[in-house]
Amino acid sequence: MISHYQSNLENFLHWAQHTPEHLYLRQPIGDQYIDYSYSAAASEVKKIAQFIQNTLNEGSKNVGILSKNSAHWMMADLAIAAAGGISVPFYATLTKDQLHQVLVHSECQILIVGKLDHWEKIKDGIPEHIQLIHTPESSEKTGTQWSDILKNTEEIKSLPKPKPEDIATIVYTSGTTGMPKGVMITYGGIEAGINMAREIALLDQPNTRFISYLPLCHIAERNFVEFAATAAGGTIHFVENLDTFSKNLASARPTHFLAVPRIWAKFQEGILLKIGGQKKLNLLLSIPIVKTLIQKKIQKGLGLDQTTLAVTGAAPISAELMIWFQKLGIFIQEAYGMTENMGLNALMPRNQIKLGSVGRIHPDCETRIDPETQEIQMRAPYNSIGYFKEPALTQELFTEDGWLKTGDQGKLDAEGFVSIIGRVKDNFKTAKGHYVAPAPIENKLNTHDYIEQVCVVGVNLPQPIVLIVLSALGKSMEQAEIQAGFEALRNEVNPALKNYEHLRKMVIVNEDWTIENECLTPTMKIKRPSIEQKYQANFEHWYAHPETIIYELMD
Question: What is the DSSP secondary-structure string of 489-533?
Answer without folding.
Answer: HHHHHGGGS-GGG---EEEE-SS---TTTTSB-TTS-B-HHHHHH
